[in-house]
Structure formats: C-alpha cells, structure tokens
C-alpha cells in the first residue's frame, strides 16, 4: 500500500491525537501525543521536525518527530507511532530515516538520540537500521504500561565522533560501561585509566571516603542514610525557570538538553539548589543542574531522593561530564548507578565531550520482561555489575 510522508500541520492535530491513543492507549506519558497546545507549538515553531504518514485513502497512519532546542546541537527522536493496521511493512523505519535526514540536513545538529522501549525488539531494530548506536539502559525509567526500562541510542553527524576530547581517568565503577561503549559505539577507551579509588584490601575507596566525609552510611546493603537537613521542594514552574536563569545566566553554565526545570530541591541550610524536570505522570525526574556545583549535594542525595519519591517520581537520573570525577564519585556514593554513556554529547568550541547518565530507582528492577537485543547486552552486563557493587555487601559479591 502506498504511503505518503509530509510535514505535519495544525489541521492534523486531532488525527494525531487519535493515532497516539490507538497505539498507546491512555498510557502515553508525553504531551506531544496528547496535549493540543504543545502539539500546535511544535508544529508551528522552528524547534521540531514533524513528519506524518498518510495512506492512499487519506488516513493518517504514522508519525515521527525530532525535537531540538537552540544552542545544544542535539535532537531527540520522539513520538514514533505507526497504526496497528500498517505495521510490518517498514513504515516505522521509513519515518525514522526521513525525519532524521531532515533534521541533520539543517547542519545544526551533532547528534540525535532516542529512548526506546524494550518490551519488544522491534523499536530497537528500527533505530539501528537508521544508523543509531546503543548507549545504555535506563532501568525503570518511565511509567507506560507499568514501570518500563528504556534503551538509549544516538545517531551522529559525520565526523562528530572523531572530534571527541579524551578523558584521562574515570571512577573504577564506570569501567564496565566504557567497555560496553567501546563495543556498541566503536570508541577506543583503552587510554582512559581508573581514577584512584579502591585500596589494596578491596574497599570502596573514594566512594567510601565521600560517604564518610558526608555522614552517609549504607544499611543492609541497599540504602544510605544521612544526617543532612530536610530537602524543600518548590514546584512552581514559572518561578523555578526565572530563578534557574538567574543562577545560570549563560548557556555554557547549564547543560541537560531538552529538559526544562519545573521544580527546585533546596537544602534547608541553603547549601545547594538542585533544579529538576519532575514528571509525576511518567514517574521520572531529571536532575538538570545543581548550584553552586554538582558535588554540593554530597551527603544530601538520600534526602533529595526521598523528596523526589514523595513527589511521585520513582526514577531519577543525572547527566554528568565523564571528566568530572568529583561529581561522579558523589553520585556513585549515594546509590546512583552508571546506566549509559553518551560520547561526544556536548560541543565546546571544536571539541566534543562525553557525558554519563547515572540513574536511581526506588522500585524493584525486573529485566525478565525486557527484550534486550545483542547490541544492548554488554550494557546490561555493565549495569548489573555496577548495581551489584553498589547494592550488595562486598562479602556477598566475593562469594
């Protein structure tokens, strides 16, 4: 059957909403497929590439979007949907390829990433066929039909990976993730050594030192407690955005592409303010930035996570430079697990810098229902290794 691809327009909004409902039911947690105000803004603005697919009879049977933001040179593939009656013919792959070609064709993007559901292998195959490379797994990252794990993939513009800035050393707990990325992305991390950490007796080294200095302790191998003051949550989007821009006035001072903070988590003693993109519908929270610096949350992440969980987010993630060993150690010491590596994510002048996604979930992780493709299996192994070293007592791991 002939299907024609064309740019979305505002007259398509009602049909698009119906398409997303037929594909995802009421469980689609993204306003792009349900909120007509958001949809209109994306269609009429200049920050999104949105293609639709119509069958020869005129019915709208497919949709795909790449959203961008000024300055970051990163796009995100979202809203890929194909009507159940038109699956199996390659339409999802065709839409993905076409919308990515249009986005990269502007010359304003270094990469486009996608978070892909892993309830079936099909979505993974679609992005891989279109040049996306696996970057990691995000366990329990979103509430769709229950709590689901997502896979992170990215596609790069020509020559981008060749301009990466080297990283001399990283915390030892990231070594398995770097090894997985070497396989999945084709990057050689042989020159990146382990930063000083574990001592000769096999203790947790730097991470333990951070916990000791911050007053955080782990109990029963599963959680940390801390003597930090309570965390105050302010969920006032307009105020939060204004305050965020006051503290981070320059674009170079903030970096979490395609996430806008709508809440601030502030230490009662004023020692830090953590800006978050909090989404109770999806059950997730992205820690967008911390003032005065990421490491300022040392000793307070347990209280911060408790506050986030009470606000309806069972999953939290942080995005940190691979080269920021101090901040990485703080988050690793507080139960965050390295989940994905995004090489060449941020352009600074003529060099591109690698970033790490660290995540933490308050729910039990169950990989039995996930369809992890062979490309993602090294990342699954890396995550399990890091999770084990974080949450199991050392004597249990050594048995």
Overall number of strands: 18
Q: Output the strand order for the largest sheet.
A: 1-2-3-4-5-7-6
Query: Termini distance?
Result: 59 Å
Unreliably modeled segments: 198-228
- By DSSP (H or I, 4+ residues per run), the number of helices equals 11
Short description:
It contains eleven helices and 18 strands. It is an alpha+beta fold.
Describe this structure in words.
There is one protein chain. Strands 1-2-3-4-5-7-6 form a seven-stranded mixed beta sheet, with helices on both faces. Strands 12-13-14-15-16-18-17 form a seven-stranded mixed beta sheet, sandwiched between helices. Strands 8-9 form a two-stranded parallel ribbon. Helix 3 (91-104) crosses helix 4. The protein has 399 residues and is of the alpha+beta class. The longest helix has 15 residues, at 377-391. It has helices at residues 13-24, 36-44, 91-104, 122-129, 175-184, 205-214, 237-247, 301-310, 325-332, 377-391, 394-397, and strands at 3-7, 48-55, 60-68, 74-82, 111-117, 133-144, 146-156, 169-170, 193-194, 217-219, 223-225, 231-234, 263-267, 273-279, 284-291, 315-321, 337-348, 351-361.
């Amino acid at each position: 059957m002939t299907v024609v691809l064309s740019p979305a327009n505002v007259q398509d909004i009602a049909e698009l909403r119906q398409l997303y409902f037929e594909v995802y039911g009421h469980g689609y947690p993204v306003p792009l497929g349900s909120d007509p105000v958001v949809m209109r803004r994306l269609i009429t603005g200049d920050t999104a590439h949105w293609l639709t697919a119509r069958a020869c009879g005129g019915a709208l049977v497919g949709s795909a979007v790449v959203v961008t933001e000024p300055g970051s040179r990163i796009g995100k593939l979202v809203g890929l949907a194909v009507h159940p009656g038109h699956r199996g013919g390659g339409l999802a792959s065709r839409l993905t390829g076409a919308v990515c070609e249009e986005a990269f064709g502007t010359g304003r993007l270094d990469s486009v990433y996608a978070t892909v559901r892993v309830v079936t292998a099909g979505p993974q195959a679609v992005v891989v066929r279109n040049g996306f490379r696996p970057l990691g797994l995000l366990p329990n990252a979103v509430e769709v039909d229950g709590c689901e794990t997502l896979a992170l993939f990215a596609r790069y513009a020509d020559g981008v990976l060749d301009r990466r800035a080297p990283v001399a050393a990283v915390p030892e707990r990231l070594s398995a993730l770097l090894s997985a990325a070497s396989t999945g992305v084709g990057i050689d991390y042989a020159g990146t050594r382990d930063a000083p950490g574990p001592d000769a007796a096999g203790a947790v080294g730097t991470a333990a030192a951070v916990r000791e200095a911050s007053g955080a302790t782990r109990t029963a191998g599963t959680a940390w407690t801390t003597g930090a003051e309570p965390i105050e949550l302010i969920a006032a989007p307009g105020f939060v955005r204004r305050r965020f821009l006051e503290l981070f006035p320059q674009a170079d001072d903030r970096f979490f592409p395609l996430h806008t903070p709508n809440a601030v988590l502030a230490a009662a003693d004023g020692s830090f303010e953590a800006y978050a993109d909090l989404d109770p519908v999806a059950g997730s929270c992205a820690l967008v930035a911390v003032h005065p610096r990421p490491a300022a949350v040392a000793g307070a992440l347990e209280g911060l996570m408790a506050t986030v969980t009470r606000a309806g987010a069972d999953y939290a993630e942080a995005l940190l430079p691979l080269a920021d060993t101090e901040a990485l150690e703080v988050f690793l010491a507080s139960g965050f697990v390295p989940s994905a590596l995004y090489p060449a994510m941020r352009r600074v002048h003529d060099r591109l810098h690698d970033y790490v996604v660290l995540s933490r979930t308050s729910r039990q992780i169950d990989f039995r229902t996930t369809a992890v493709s062979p490309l993602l299996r090294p990342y699954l192994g890396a995550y399990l290794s890091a999770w084990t070293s974080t949450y199991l007592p050392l004597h249990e791991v050594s048995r």
